[in-house]
């Protein structure tokens, strides 16, 4: 079967405008999570990864009029622009655009700064497609917190189905009053920067970001490249918000994926987990990883760097996994203190180099959804 | 492989009518509100699933349509759900935003994602299968076919329910169809379009 | 049965959308979670909102919630002792 590759990418976050800036910040242990006191829903303040709109506008004014676009539209357009800058010869005629978001421009709900239809996710997609004159009708994936990786799977599958020759996947979500108050009503927001898999974890931190990646069959032949192997999703069929106590859906998505591709757990060099730092999520993941025979694989969560960026998180983490593979580099699971899940995992405690070939990315979300994805490095010799 | 796929049964909830394979199953009273129409379907079909009352309207629409689609059959555990709509969860987003002014409601917030409906259907029928929720301005048969085809080709599903479950400003439009290796119609764009918008209506 | 007990049952039925239940069907000492009424984690969060909204009680320790929400009786006792409205 013809493989698709993870090609150029971009991350726009509080850690920087571009993947390189983000990698640099991660290597030096930087975190987007800062203390903020400007929410009426969290009067004692909260930690989150926020991007000031002023900083976005400074970058955006090079390519468009900032006042014409919502904050999220600008973030997503900036991410796509970086992909196009890296690929000046990209044939736009047959390039698909795949959007991943959970809430789109929900910060605009109840305001009249923009026409009302800008709240629709298809309209968000249309605005981005029109900006770049992408002719193919964009596709929107909105499947809670697995969206970012599910959009990569969708890109691969729609290229395989012949709908596109290649596809730009762009993901983004904001920290709005809407999601802040919602997660607060769930008593899920940590008073301190989130600490995935740690014994002293007390919940999530939220973050905002966008990210984009080009997926396609034509990778540079004279360099190492990262191929998309396969991905599986599975529903817990247990509860719409609480993770399954047995990690059923996550376990099934991983075990089906490994079985379908004849891969043994020992072959996996690195595991990029979801790791939101809620009590139940991290425990669920530990159980599922153990059931799948992955408890010894080096694992991290990137939530300590970015917070939970919802529809962007799994794409950002896929991009970082790609760079881990390419650079043979394992990144610290930031803010980890000591194991706080019932099954010990091989949490990455310091940045280090290790020969990497095969990586597993997982994600889970509300609605009981789970996803597992395999990425592999093809070494140029 | 795609030529061996067929549409088995389909369900529509539209304009105050619930139809299964084109035949009216439940019809609303004139000027009946959506919430009471949904409850009427639940009662009329003698469903016994108290979780129904806790769902938001979007999930109720998807759940009820799936009950009618799977009438008298136990769905294959490898039945994937490929769903889509135009308005995502905007109706419930607005309902949640109203609670924000007072006491933000966790039980409303949890429904502010369109794929919660997939969770509800998965729980009801114990489907630990492939799921995706897509958003497009209009019903897009080609997208359902392209995504579903790949699921079958990669042997990730034995059957699929394709669903369009849209709700905005109390306007609703629901179309579910059950796809598998045997059935009544070929699984192609033309047939999907015909079933989604029957011309004789 | 006190007015508070009845009032609580009514608001639980309404707030948690237990549309198929009647006040008379809920026993005062019946467990609200697990085998009793079968409430779940989202219901627990919604009960926390209810305490704050109707009785001015802020509950932030989830562990405390488990004891308070054991039954209508435990809820009513807790409210009598802590209500600010």
From TrEMBL, chain A:
UniProt xrefs under InterPro entries: Beta-ketoacyl_synthase, Ketoacyl_synth_C, Ketoacyl_synth_N, PKS_Beta-ketoAc_synthase_dom, Thiolase-like
Keywords: Transferase
Record carries keyword Cell membrane: no
Classification via Pfam families: ketoacyl-synt, Ketoacyl-synt_C
Ketosynthase family 3 (KS3) domain sequence ranges: 1-377
SUPFAM superfamilies found in the cross-reference section: Thiolase-like
Molecular function terms, GO-annotated: 3-oxoacyl-[acyl-carrier-protein] synthase activity
BP term (GO), one: fatty acid biosynthetic process
Family affiliation: Belongs to the thiolase-like superfamily. Beta-ketoacyl-ACP synthases family.
Protein name as it appears in the record: Beta-ketoacyl synthase
Species of origin: Christiangramia crocea
From TrEMBL, chain B:
Domain of life from the UniProt record: Bacteria
Designated name of the protein: 3-oxoacyl-ACP synthase
UniProtKB/TrEMBL annotation, chain C:
Positions of transmembrane segments: none
Coiled coil: none
Domain Carrier: 2-83
Short name of one Pfam family: PP-binding
Top-level lineage group: Bacteria
PROSITE patterns linked to this entry: CARRIER, PHOSPHOPANTETHEINE
InterPro entries attached to this UniProt entry: ACP-like_sf, PP-bd_ACP, Ppantetheine_attach_site
UniProt keyword terms in alphabetical order: Phosphopantetheine, Phosphoprotein
Record NCBIfam families: PRK09184.1
Protein name: Phosphopantetheine-binding protein
Organism of provenance: Christiangramia crocea
């Amino acid at each position: 079967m013809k493989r698709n590759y993870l090609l150029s990418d971009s991350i726009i976050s509080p850690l920087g405008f571009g993947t390189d800036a983000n990698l640099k910040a991660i290597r030096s242990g930087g975190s987007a999570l800062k203390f903020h006191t400007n929410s009426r829903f969290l009067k004692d303040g909260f930690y989150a990864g926020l991007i000031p709109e002023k900083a976005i506008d400074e970058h955006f004014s090079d390519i468009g009029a900032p006042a014409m676009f919502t904050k999220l539209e600008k973030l997503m357009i900036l991410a796509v622009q970086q992909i196009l800058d890296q690929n000046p010869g990209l044939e736009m005629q047959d390039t698909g655009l795949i959007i991943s978001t959970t809430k789109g421009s929900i910060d605009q709900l109840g305001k009249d700064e923009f026409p009302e239809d800008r709240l629709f996710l298809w309209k968000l997609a249309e605005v981005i497609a029109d900006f770049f004159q992408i002719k193919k009708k964009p596709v929107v994936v909105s499947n809670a917190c697995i969206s970012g990786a599910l959009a990569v799977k969708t890109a691969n599958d729609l290229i395989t189905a012949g709908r596109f020759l290649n596809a730009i996947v762009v993901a983004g979500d904001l920290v709005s009053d809407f999601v802040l108050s919602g997660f607060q009503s769930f008593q899920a927001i940590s008073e301190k920067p989130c600490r995935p898999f740690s014994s002293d974890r007390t919940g999530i931190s939220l973050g905002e970001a966008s990210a984009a990646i080009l997926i396609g069959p034509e990778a540079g032949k004279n360099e190492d490249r990262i191929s998309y192997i396969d991905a599986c999703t599975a529903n817990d069929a247990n509860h719409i918000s609480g993770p399954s106590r047995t990690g059923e859906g996550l376990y099934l998505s991983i075990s089906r994926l490994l079985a379908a591709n004849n891969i043994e757990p020992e072959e996996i060099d690195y595991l990029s987990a979801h790791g939101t730092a809620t009590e139940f999520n991290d425990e669920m993941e530990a159980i599922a990883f153990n059931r799948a025979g992955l408890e010894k694989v080096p694992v991290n969560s990137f939530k300590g760097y970015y917070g939970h960026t919802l529809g962007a998180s799994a794409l950002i983490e896929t991009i970082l996994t790609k760079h881990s593979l390419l650079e043979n580099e394992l990144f610290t699971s930031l803010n980890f203190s000591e194991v706080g899940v019932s099954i010990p995992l091989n949490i990455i405690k310091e940045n280090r180099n290790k020969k990497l070939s095969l990586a597993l990315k997982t994600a889970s979300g509300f609605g009981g959804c789970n996803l597992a994805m395999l990425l592999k490095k093809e070494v140029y010799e | 492989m795609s030529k061996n796929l067929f549409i088995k049964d389909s369900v529509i909830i539209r304009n105050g009518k619930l139809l299964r394979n084109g035949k009216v199953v439940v019809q609303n009273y004139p000027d009946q509100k959506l919430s009471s129409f949904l409850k009427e379907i639940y009662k009329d079909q003698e469903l016994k699933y108290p979780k129904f009352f806790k769902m938001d309207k979007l999930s109720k629409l998807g759940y009820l349509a799936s009950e009618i689609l799977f009438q008298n059959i136990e769905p294959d555990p490898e039945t994937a759900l490929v769903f889509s709509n135009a308005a995502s969860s905007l109706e419930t987003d607005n309902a949640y935003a109203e609670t924000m002014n007072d006491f933000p409601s966790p039980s409303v917030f949890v429904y502010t994602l369109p794929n919660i409906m997939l969770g509800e259907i998965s729980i009801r029928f114990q489907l630990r299968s492939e799921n995706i929720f897509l958003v497009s301005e209009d019903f897009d048969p080609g997208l359902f076919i392209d995504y579903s085809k790949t699921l079958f080709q990669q042997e990730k599903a034995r059957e699929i329910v394709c669903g369009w479950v849209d709700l905005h400003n109390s306007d609703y439009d629901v179309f579910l169809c059950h796809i598998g290796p045997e059935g009544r119609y070929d699984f192609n764009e033309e047939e999907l379009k015909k079933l989604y918008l029957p011309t004789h209506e | 049965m006190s007015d508070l007990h009845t009032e609580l049952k009514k608001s639980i039925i309404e707030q948690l959308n237990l549309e198929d239940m009647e006040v008379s069907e809920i026993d005062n000492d019946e467990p609200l979670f697990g085998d009793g009424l079968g409430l779940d984690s989202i219901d627990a969060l919604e009960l926390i909102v209810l305490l704050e909204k109707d009785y001015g009680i802020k509950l932030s320790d989830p562990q405390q919630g488990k004891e308070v929400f054991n039954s209508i009786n435990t809820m009513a006792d807790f409210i009598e002792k802590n209500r600010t409205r």
